[in-house]
Automatic annotation (TrEMBL):
It holds the Pfam family DUF4325. This is DUF4325 domain-containing protein. It comes from the Bacteria. Residues 270-324 form the DUF4325 domain. InterPro entries: DUF4325 (IPR025474), HATPase_C_sf (IPR036890), WH-like_DNA-bd_sf (IPR036388), WH_DNA-bd_sf (IPR036390). It comes from Rodentibacter mrazii.
């Protein structure tokens, strides 16, 4: 499938209704010409169509496969990958294959080693332009397990710590990097457990959801990638390594996740929660997207007290409002 057709099918995906108008605008053609193209894509089994007139709805053809595995010592994540997903990616570019192999095997291995469940269900949803995968276990639930293992104040703190990377309840066998890198490399990545979810959507602020989602007793990890993606695993790994090194030394921290619903980032205690485990990294990029202001105590604890106590940790600020920058600079910290 050529790149132009992929782009047009993306337009259909995001415009299931009034689709002909959207295609016409994209190609600068008449609505009638766009309708003929849509009819051809339906005939080519790329789209389905339902309804009539203003109620006409186009959707990408989707193929769904489900596989269930009993958890045992013999279960191997790479063998499961070859049995389930590998053959469905035939013909895709090398970089896309590498991303799926990395993400699938990392997330499936997490379910094997950490879930304490009895089964894992893999669901694969494919359209002509993308592949969506979910891996669901019936175990303890990732956020609750992290909260108990690290004695955190609540589930929200578990999600926040997980988003930083290098967090694992089994340091002997795991580095805590798999979720961090997988969340950055896919177009869409979500972890859902017991009414809570962490979502990383490419180009969109990281989000933490409570309750307004499908309830999963164990853990459900979901990820999706466009078949036309030009991302490479190496580029993502390099982005978070220090120059001339291969170690995972850089993290991007979405500061908005430290702000519980209805809260403002004002206190020193909130800053202390934010900086937990920063010392595991050489470079911490604080992303203030979605945060409109911070308090003096919060800023002082983070940019003066913590930085003085940890001079080897470099703090960087991105997406900060002018008000936030002013408050940071009042502490004497020079924004990099």
């Amino acid at each position: 499938m050529n790149d132009i057709l992929c782009k047009l099918l993306e337009v259909v995906k995001h415009n299931p209704t009034q689709t002909a108008e959207a295609i016409a605008e994209k190609l600068s053609i008449t609505r009638q010409s766009a309708s003929r193209k849509l009819k051809g894509w339906v005939e080519d089994n790329l789209l389905t169509v339902s309804g009539r007139g203003r109620s006409t709805r186009y959707e990408l053809v989707e193929k769904v496969d489900t596989f269930t595995f009993s958890l045992s010592n013999e279960l191997d994540e790479f063998q499961v990958y070859t049995q389930t997903l590998d053959s469905k990616l035939n013909g895709l570019s090398k970089n896309v294959l590498e991303i799926f192999q990395y993400g699938f095997t990392e997330m499936f291995n997490n379910a094997i080693d950490h879930s304490n469940g009895t089964e894992i269900v893999v669901e694969i949803r494919q359209t002509p332009i993308s592949t969506f995968v979910s891996i669901t276990d019936n175990g303890l639930g990732i956020f609750e397990k992290i909260q108990k293992a690290f004695d955190l104040i609540d589930i929200r703190q578990s999600i926040f710590e997980l988003s930083k990377g290098k967090l694992t309840t089994d340091k002997k066998n795991h580095s805590g990097e798999g979720i961090f890198f997988s969340s950055k490399i896919f177009d869409f990545f979500c972890i859902n457990s017991k009414g809570w979810a962490f979502v990383h959507d490419a180009g969109v602020i990281d989000v933490m959801y409570e309750h307004d989602i499908e309830y999963i007793e164990g853990t459900k990890v979901m990820f999706e990638l466009l078949h036309s993606s030009t991302k490479r695993t190496k580029d993502v790994f390099d982005q978070f390594a220090m120059p001339d090194e291969y170690a995972f030394a850089t993290t991007v921290v979405p500061v908005n996740l430290a702000k519980h619903e209805g809260e403002f980032l004002m206190s020193r205690s909130q800053a202390k929660r934010l900086v937990a485990r920063f010392e595991h990294f050489q470079k911490v990029i604080l992303d203030f997207q979605g945060v409109t202001s911070i308090g003096q105590g919060f800023a002082d604890q983070l940019f003066r007290v913590y930085q003085n106590d940890h001079p080897n940790v470099q703090l960087f600020v991105i997406n900060a409002t002018n008000d936030i920058k002013d408050m940071i600079q009042r502490t004497g910290y020079q924004i990099k």
